[in-house]
Known about the structure:
A hairpin with a 2-residue loop joins strand 7 (140-141) and strand 8. This protein has helices at 20-27, 36-40, 48-55, 68-89, 149-162, 168-179, 192-198, 220-223, 232-242, 246-249, 258-264, 272-286, 291-298, 305-312, 320-329, 355-364, 368-374, 376-409, 459-470, 500-503; strands at 10-14, 92-94, 98-101, 109-110, 114-117, 123-126, 140-141, 144-145, 333-336, 349-352, 418-426, 431-441, 444-451, 477-484, 496-499. The termini are far apart. With 507 residues, the protein is an alpha+beta fold. The chain has three domains: 10-183, Lambda Exonuclease, Chain A (Alpha-Beta Complex); 220-393, Arc Repressor Mutant, subunit A, CATH 1.10.10; 398-503, Trna Endonuclease, Chain: A, domain 1, CATH 3.40.1350.10.
Amino acid sequence: MPEHIRQEPKVLVSTENLTEQEWLAYRRRGIGGSDVAAILGISPFRTARDLYDDKLNIALAVDDAGNWVALEMGHLLEPLVAQIFTKKTGLEVFQIKKMFQHPQYPFMLADVDYFVRLPNGKIALLEIKTTNYNAKDHWWKDGEECVPVYYETQGRHYMAVMNDSATVDSIFQNIIDNRLVNIELILSGSHIGMMKDALQEKNALYGRFAVTIKLNELNYLEAAKFYPDKAPYDKAAHYAVFGGSPFVNQALQPTATIRENIISTILNPMSAVYLYASQLLLSDYSVKINAERIFSVIGNGKKRYTEIEDKLDVKKTGNLSKQIKSLIDLEIIARNSPINKIGDNKKSTFEINDNLLRFYFTFIYKNASALQVLGAEAFYDEYIAPALTDFISRRFEGICRDYFSHQVRSGKMKGVRNIGSYYYDDPAHRKNGEFDVALEFADGYEIYEAKYYAQPMTLDEIHREVQQVEAIKELTVKQIGFIAINGFAEREEPYLYLDGNDIFANE
């Protein structure tokens, strides 16, 4: 690409030998230039709902089939119009048969008609439109020739993809300030960094927002409504893997198994969820920060700063703390401290916030080549199935802590000061660790062990956990409890017991 393009676009695919169906499948991976007007609600050809259905392959959003002659003529006339342009301007016109991606926001795609080489060596974009006499009024405004705003947005989108000097924000700014009257623009996105940037003074949209609203992801109870008939064991599994994004959860089959849903979405390169997991979740920060390496180290576990530093071998650079701070600011990772060690950096750990992103980096990121070779089903059986229960178990601990938070916020529990894990040292057995769930009260703690077992928890297992709690002499325990997703084989006083039906009771 020419030197003036400060940030080169990525190439999604070469379009030269693609069939029409293959080309359409790649277009569904993101937003193309011709899609922008529909999203803004200014397209005379299709609605935003048409576009939504098209991207999810629910219905093919194309112009009226009766208009196929005009569409075909448009395609046939493009080379002729390009020749006429060359004759009239003397400029070189050429094609690059590739579908491009924005380097920072890979959901933005560009399939440019032609490129033009200017006398100074720079490259311009040439978008060709063929129209009929009845549409002539769309090309005039206030007695002067103009480009219809729904076509202008297409060109600006292409400029944003091909050259970062023309940003997405400038597209919206131009539309708001110059083109449309009484426009009500709702800007929504899951890219935290991009959304925060839009609120900064340096941004083209600064001062143009009347209201800003932060929508958190669905919690485990809300997400479970997408698969209401599943058993608690399976609800926990789906939330642990897919998280609380409505976009992701609506792609799931409510009656399918966790294996079937993982294969049909996360492991399917043509799935919208695969794109979301592998590209969209990364785009906000991977360009600015070497985030993928940090994520790959954290993966499924809780990692302390020194562990991450050792794995990445970055002690000499001093950049890791800045990178982690940036990821925390972007709300991608979280710094967690045990409830009894708040402020103790040595006991603090870092986790990936998003369940789907955590799953991606635990199972897929390092093994992407194997997925391509083996295919989805064999990959699942080889790489995911053996470790999936452990992965879900770690997420189940968080579900249990969220359960108690919900109880406190709803007024069903009183006197709770804080909720988290509890770090302990056990010198007698020469070990340390954390109790899964700790509720802090003024006069001590309630300690709960969370177990994601396929079978009910036994009394022997309960006794072993009780012994471990009682071995920590400095711990003032008010109550010991157990949370077992599939219940208990036996129950014994004076302990508290919660099963999956209790956790997922949304009352």
